[in-house]
Design a protein that fits this description.
The protein contains eleven helices and 16 strands. It has 320 residues and is an alpha/beta fold. The longest helix has 16 residues. It is globular. The relative contact order is 0.15. Bound molecules: adenosine monophosphate and magnesium ion. The site of magnesium ion (MG) has 3 residues, from loops.
């Protein structure tokens, strides 16, 4: 069922079942983070490998000590600056956080999401919510209630409808190694904004599939079922595939070339607007039975870096 009934959401969660929740980033598949049975249901429904830990959602930064300990000064600075908001902090976990949530790591990923419905829900319950994105493992994240329904149909008692996600891209994940801030995943909070507050953040090799710092860093992730290429030479690629049914994903300007379908992310050339529209555009393109999706590389600054990273993970390398 899709509804905005918070009483019902609390009832379902209190009985250790799952509710899809809206956040400003993407929709989450939420369960009681303190209940292993609920947490296991998340992994089962998403078909998520157990090595991939979950993000824990709390109501306010005041609750941080309940789930995390030995919190570095820089982490506190970031929490106070950006919460509620699209920033996840990876910190040493308190023992109340089970290995089921942390995938056996001694750390926990935690954030305060910025969505009025979910914040109100978090205030009404007396446990945090473990919630990864509400999509089957590896597929495109959902940015509205209908996307969630198309993935999980009758397997969810309740999808809490909070409209379209404001940001549309996952949270940025920052961890700490010996108190040094490390980027674990690019997301909807630009790295520049974080570095403005705490100085230099280390960016690790992001494509080490054998041992990803964070599973969001797997080289192929967030992928449409349709073969997708990302390129800065779109016309050349179109020519090379002129016999195919093609959909294109563009930043600002439509193409004059005739193709089956065009998606423009922001006619104003605004990266924040492009981020908000990216996954919905990919969902639409992926449902059109195309032979190929060709995405245009975005300007590689600020949020554009995040969007190019997501596109790269959604795509194969183009063979011209
Ligand atoms: P999702 O909510 O589906 O976007 O996935 C949550 C992301 O948070 C995944 O990429 C996880 O790998 C990452 N994550 C959660 N807990 C940790 C942790 N303890 N250390 C590093 N990354 C984490
Ligand atoms: Mg995910």
């Amino acid at each position: 069922m899709i509804s905005d009934n918070l009483t019902e959401a609390k009832r379902v969660l209190d009985s250790n079942n799952l509710v899809a929740i809206p956040t400003e980033t993407v929709y989450g598949l939420a369960g009681n983070a303190y209940n292993v049975e609920a947490v296991e249901k998340i992994f089962a429904l998403k078909k998520r490998p157990h090595y991939n830990p979950l993000i824990v959602h709390i109501a306010t930064a005041d609750q941080l000590n309940q789930v995390a300990k030995a919190i570095p000064e820089a982490a506190l600075t970031l929490a106070l600056e950006f919460w509620p908001g699209p920033l996840t902090l990876v910190l040493k976990k308190q023992s109340i956080i089970s290995d089921a949530v942390s995938s056996g790591k001694d750390t926990v990923a935690v954030r305060v999401p910025n969505h009025p419905l979910t914040l109100e829900l978090l205030k009404r319950i007396d446990y945090p919510l473990a919630a990864p994105s509400a999509n089957p493992f590896g597929s495109i994240s959902p940015t509205n209630a209908k996307h969630v329904r198309s993935y999980f149909e009758n397997h969810l008692e309740l999808i809490l409808d909070g409209g379209d996600c404001e940001r549309g891209i996952e949270s940025t994940i920052i961890g700490f190694e010996n108190e040094t801030p490390v980027l674990y995943r690019l997301g909807s909070l630009a790295l520049e904004q974080i570095e403005d507050k705490i100085g230099r953040v280390i960016v690790k090799n992001q494509n080490n599939d054998a041992s990803p710092a964070s599973p969001g860093m797997l080289s192929r992730h967030y992928a449409p079922a349709t073969t997708t290429y990302v390129t800065d030479e779109i016309e050349k690629l179109l020519k090379a595939h002129s016999d195919k049914k093609i959909g294109v994903l563009l930043f600002q300007h439509q193409l004059k070339t005739v193709v089956e379908h065009q998606e423009v992310l922001s006619t104003a050339g605004d990266l924040t607007e492009a981020a908000k529209n990216l996954y919905a555009a990919l969902h639409r393109l992926d449902s059109m039975k195309l032979d190929l999706i060709i995405a245009e590389k975005l300007p590689d600054t600020g949020l554009g870096k995040t969007l190019n990273d997501k596109l790269k993970r959604a795509s194969k390398s183009a063979n011209l």
